From TrEMBL:
It comes from the Bacteria. It is an enzyme of class 2 (transferase). It comes from Lutimaribacter marinistellae. InterPro entries: MttB-like_sf (IPR038601), MTTB_MeTrfase (IPR010426). This is Methyltransferase. Belongs to the trimethylamine methyltransferase family. GO terms for biological process: methylation. GO terms for molecular function: methyltransferase activity. Keywords: Methyltransferase, Transferase. Its EC number is 2.1.1.-.
């Protein structure tokens, strides 16, 4: 039972009908918003093609350069020059719709334009909450955050929420994958940190899901994130990740990390042009390896504070960059990932404002996946337990909007309007009594009582309420049911690979 399924403000009797809103399959009700004209979109796309064809991209991986060269690219040392025809051919074979399987059928997700998929904050070196403070991320933090992700239907995929820094890098992938598989049945994430680590992850997922090699390769069961090394570089682990995932039929989310004025030009148009070029180069590699391999277009573009160099998020430039990226994503037709987030240092009003502004940029840009949509602060240096809950409040409101606004004859309420006298009220009207139990969304952390009632109850603010919610969720958490034989086999695999020394990253 997720938080949104109760009636408003706890007034629903046990026998009352329960709200049945499907947060697992969201389609966007929002019209996409353009930041620039269509001719300027075409100009950005043409500029990106010119960059790849004439200026080139550095590729630090021998086999990747071989794939490019066999596909018709010109290779000079570690620089690769990719022609327009190669890009067009890759975009023609890359699938427009990708169904990724979860651990249960109701956890399957479809990635395509028009869908909405949310992920919480990811890739953070630190975790923070009001009780334990800010700290380097641990495996316990990762486990708890996976459990919270599992607990809310509006979060659809498990990302690398926080780095488990108390586990050595050669073993971390084993521990984090085991937690994802045992504590959640949502789509899991694997790092691209070298083929041995990736293959460990594939084997763990394959066996835990009860698949053959052919069944695993025939359909996506996990995903990775590929960050090009901006500007204009695909480094060793990222190139290897693109190859490994494409060969095995698993999706890569290609996401250049282009901060305006730092790793990219200081203008929105320049930064997105660079990002687009890098994404096209990486997408092309996946199709050269395995035509038809699932791949997502991605962008993560914002600006920096030019006085300090610190990343900034939830800014007008961040919002505009998302809109332009959405226009390019629609041009090439691929499912795509955008990013929310906040650069605030704590879960305060600044953090809420930045996250909401960034979120609406993604929604109005038509993003398929929005990462960093809950809990992400400090420009990604920390994930906040309290902010994860308060951000989920907003995501669930968005999910409610996706359900649409009923406007049947009964909803128009003509008879109720006739029955209630002028200056009367609708509290006791039959129309109200028939519907109030299932009509309204109840907020997670909001309080709609008046100031006097609120202070009488202790005046608990949103962050304090959020602390109580995440603690209760963890205390009540029940992992999804698992096959005992598969669980035992998973534990034995992790123990064996640990005894063998695991796998060093990038090896």
């Amino acid at each position: 039972m997720t938080e949104q399924r109760r009636g408003r403000r706890g007034r629903v009797a046990a026998s009352a009908p329960q709200r049945q809103v499907d947060y697992r399959n969201l389609r966007s009700p929002f019209p996409t918003m353009n930041a620039i004209s269509e001719d300027r979109v075409e100009a950005l796309h043409e500029a990106a093609l010119t960059i790849l064809e004439e200026t080139g991209i550095k590729v630090l991986h021998d086999e990747a350069r071989t794939f490019y060269e066999k596909g018709g690219a010109r290779v000079s040392d570690d620089m690769v020059f990719i022609g327009r025809d190669m890009i067009e051919a890759a975009l023609a074979t890359a699938p427009r719709s990708i169904t990724v399987k979860g651990g249960a059928p109701h956890r399957d997700i479809t990635l395509e334009l028009g869908r909405i998929v949310f992920q919480p904050g990811a890739g953070c070196p630190h975790a923070t909450d009001l009780d334990r403070g800010r700290r380097p991320g641990t495996l316990r933090d990762f486990r708890e955050l996976v459990q919270l992700t599992q607990s809310f239907d509006v979060l659809h995929m498990v990302p690398p929420l926080v780095e488990a820094q108390d586990v050595a890098m050669n073993l971390r992938h084993l521990a984090m994958t085991e937690i994802q598989l045992t504590q959640s049945d949502k789509v899991p994430f694997l790092y691209s940190r070298g083929t041995p680590q990736v293959m460990d992850g594939f084997e763990m997922i394959r066996d835990f899901r009860g698949l053959t090699d052919a069944e695993f390769r025939a359909q996506p069961w996990c995903y990775t994130i590929i960050n090009t090394n901006s500007p204009r570089t695909i480094d060793l682990p990222m190139a290897q990740g693109l190859i490994d995932f494409a060969r095995n039929g698993q999706p890569s989310i290609v996401t250049p990390f282009t901060l305006m004025g730092a790793m990219a030009p200081v203008t929105v148009a320049g930064a997105i042009t660079l990002s687009h070029a890098e994404a096209l180069a990486a997408i092309t590699l996946t199709q050269l390896v395995n035509p038809g391999a699932p791949v997502c277009y991605g962008t993560f573009t914002s600006n920096v504070d030019m006085k300090s160099g610190a990343p900034a998020f939830g800014t007008p430039e961040h919002f505009s960059a998302s809109l332009v990226a959405g226009q390019l994503a629609r041009k090439i037709g691929l499912p795509w990932r955008c990013a929310g987030g906040s650069a605030a240092n704590i879960a305060d009003a600044q953090a809420a404002n930045e996250s909401q502004f960034a979120l609406w940029g993604c929604l109005l840009a038509g993003a398929t996946i929005t990462i960093h949509s809950a809990g992400w602060i400090e420009g990604g240096l920390s994930i906040s337990y309290e902010k994860m809950i308060t951000d989920l409040e907003v995501l669930q409101m968005v999910a409610e909007l996706c359900a649409g606004t009923p406007a049947t004859e009964g909803d128009i309420a003509l008879d109720a309007i006739r029955d209630v006298a002028p200056m009367g009220h609708f509290f006791g009207a039959q129309h109200t009594m028939d519907r109030y139990q299932t009509q309204f969304y109840e907020p997670l952390v909001g309080d709609w009582s008046n100031f006097g009632t609120w202070t009488e109850r202790g005046g608990i603010d949103a962050s304090t309420r959020a602390t109580g919610i995440w603690k209760r969720k963890l205390a009540e958490f029940q992992p999804p049911a698992t096959d005992s034989d598969r669980l035992s086999a998973l534990e034995q695999f992790v123990a064996r690979r640990t005894a063998e020394g695991g796998a060093n990253p990038e090896s």
